Amino acid sequence: MVEVVVAAVQSVPSKFVVAVQHNARITRFALPLTPQPKYSHLPAEVQRAASLLLSVGADKWITDVVTIDDPIVFSQLSHTEFASKVIGRKIQNVGRYGKYLYIELDGDGPMPVLHFGMTGLFQIKGENPTYYRKKPKNASVEWPPKFMKFVLHLTAEDSKLVTEVAFLDARRLGRVRLCASPLDEPPISTLGFDPILSMPALDEFMPLVRKRLCPIKALLLDQSFSAGVGNWVADEILYNARIHPEQRCNTLTQDQIVSLRTQMIYVCETAVAVNADSEQFPIHWLFKHRWGKKKEESDIMTLPNGKPATIKWITVGGRTSAYVVEMQLLPSVGDTRQVSKLFRFSGHPYRHKLDWGTGIEHHFKEGKFVQ
Q: Per the record's keyword annotation, is Hydrolase included, yes or no (predicted)?
């Protein structure tokens, strides 16, 4: 069954958008190639995606959109609504904050906000897709590519040349949203600082860390603390800072916090500088030993001084964590889990309660626990 939907386009009153439902999954929206009038108006992998889209899409019109009906990725809107809101508009800029990418379009409509999950990426038609790790065995050169969620057809003004850009997500952990003001509303507005874009000064950074009671690895992964730091990035930061992933935040020394901040900047900026190409990461990074080797090889590494070292794998904050035994020592400070004080207060046996998932301490006040 073929369903035809006709909708008017504000920028071209005499023209129409025709949306044809070819089958149960794919919808195509097409516009004439006539230029529309102008309006008056890192994590490293996401930064690379933003740079890629900006390089091929800046000042180009979205003249065609193909979408796949995926209610998981398009979780807060339908795939047809996404297409209808972006078609006929010009890409003015592509930005990133934390793990989110946002596309600034002309006009008064909402802007696309994308979360890439673990496997999201952009692919340009006619070019090989790029991966920050080894190319998957099931990577395909077909078009539209496998696992695509939408394809944008981009056309420059006074040109009939079309550039096709596909957003892929094999594991469906990414999300596609529309926001009126991406930086001022959720999900981006709920995030903490971005290590590249908005790293706090040391005098602000230090109390942010010391007031938390959770393991430092868990804090780094908390997006409300630092936006964009993923699992391997957190391990790399802690390795370079010589901090054990299980060390509690409130036990870190001033020197450790200074080193932590320095290495957050270093690791994130280095990864972005090489466009998230893992082959260009520094040879001494722990990343080089996380993947691509046999298990017996991945548990050992050679330090810059030539001495051997042992890599151990533990679970911290619900995530697998790698650390180097000889370089990242856990201070002996007694039982690090005994951080909450237990005593009678207003008839309640606990005055403090710790949320181990977030590391936030809750205090008993007026008959209930509050932050």
A: yes
Q: In the chain, pLDDT over 90 holds for what percent of residues?
A: 61
Tokens of 316: 């911290």
Comparing CA positions, the residue from 339, 358, 359 lying closest to residue 350 is 339
Q: What topology is assigned to 43-133+140-190 in CATH?
A: N-terminal domain of MutM-like DNA repair proteins (3.20.190)
pLDDT score recorded for residue 193? 97
Looking at 159-253, list the stretches that DSSP marks H as alpha helix, in order from N- to C-terminal side: 202-210, 216-221, 231-241
Q: Which residues of the chain have pLDDT under 70?
A: 1-42, 130-141, 291-298, 333-371
CA-closest candidate to residue 46, choices 289, 272, 203: 272
Closest CA relative to residue 24, chosen from 65, 80, 74, 63 = 80
What confidence tens digit (pLDDT) does each residue in 114-153 have? 999 989 999 999 987 765 455 555 555 689 999 999 999 9
The pLDDT tens digits of the residues spanning 271-296 come to 999 988 888 999 889 998 876 555 55
Q: Are 99 and 223 in contact (CB under 8 A)?
A: yes
Are the C-beta atoms of 66 and 23 separated by less than 8 Å?
no
Q: Where are the domains of the chain?
A: 43-133+140-190, 202-333
Cα–Cα distance measured from residue 31 to residue 11, given in angstroms and rounded to the nearest whole number: 11
Specify whether the CB–CB gap between 337 and 330 falls below 8 A: no
CATH of 202-333, one of 1.10.8.50, 1.10.1040.10, 3.30.2130.10, 3.30.565.10: 1.10.8.50
DSSP result, 32-94:
-SSPPPPP----HHHHHHHHHHHHHHTTEEEEEEEEE--TTTS-SS-HHHHHHHHTT-BEEEE
The pTM of this model reads: 0.73
